Amino acid sequence: MKDNIFKINEKEYILPGSRACQGCGLSLAYRHLLKALREDTIITLPASCLCVLHGLYPITPVTIPTLNTTFASTAASASGIAAGLAALNKTDITVVAIAGDGSTYDMGIQSLSGAAERNTDFIFVCYDNEGYMNTGTQRSSATPLGATTTTTPIVPKQDNKKDFIKIMEAHDLPYLATTSPSYPIDLYDKFVKAKRIKGTRYMHIYSPCPPGWGYPTKDTIRIGKLAVETGIVVLCEIENGKFRFTGRSKTLSKKGKKLPVINYVERQGRFKKMSIEQLNTLQTWVDTRWNEYLRRAEE
Predict the structure, then answer these.
(1) What is the pLDDT of residues 240-298, one digit of tens each?
(2) Which class is domain 25-297?
(3) With contact defined as beta carbons under 8 Å apart, do 101 and 71 qualify?
(4) Domain boundaries, the chain
């Protein structure tokens, strides 16, 4: 039977008392993806916000077996674990690599691309908080146009963020999906589905970050929903090359109307130096991508 809002795993895999920031979007997403993946899972992760959430050895609030690795080698670590399990004929354990956008878009893209080209049997999860948040909110290639960071403090970032979904889709993966902690059931269902598929699966979590983005901790869910309502984030999945909208994005694609991007950026301190020209450029980028997805959904 398919798990859903009426039949969701009630067991908790994160005990009370993590070291994550208040309002952390990652902690909300992590709670639900672990519920979907369940006990027969091994996680590998680099130095990151998630590493902070796990805590300092020998104490951790997370009950799933976890291996810590270096920034650039998350996918390589997962590949090694998968190979070891295959050698032991342990086919019932899901290997999951979880890294931030810096360890995915930037430093980790080489090992991830290699593993994806080989279709290594694991799930790679990128939690995208659009910067190197664990080390001080530096710019990454996932940082959006017009955002200030500690490495772009005077002049905001001048480029749109890298479209990493396109990069991973080019590897002909069996399954890719985008998710948000603001829509936990959509996230949960996608991880349940990903667990049942073999080969390299890529899961992208849009992860709002109060200290890095400059909004009140109580507004994490609201910011995440506004990202979807404006089309900044598109909830979707691509299975064997077939694209489809999911959740709120599916509703917007059929009978809704996206909100202007200004509704999203005006609530975050990181965009306080954004120019009107940059805002218009960002709106055009969002609209162009949205229209491309609409065309694909009709195919």
Answers:
(1) 999 999 999 999 999 889 999 999 999 999 999 999 999 999 999 999 999 999 999 99
(2) alpha beta
(3) no
(4) 25-297
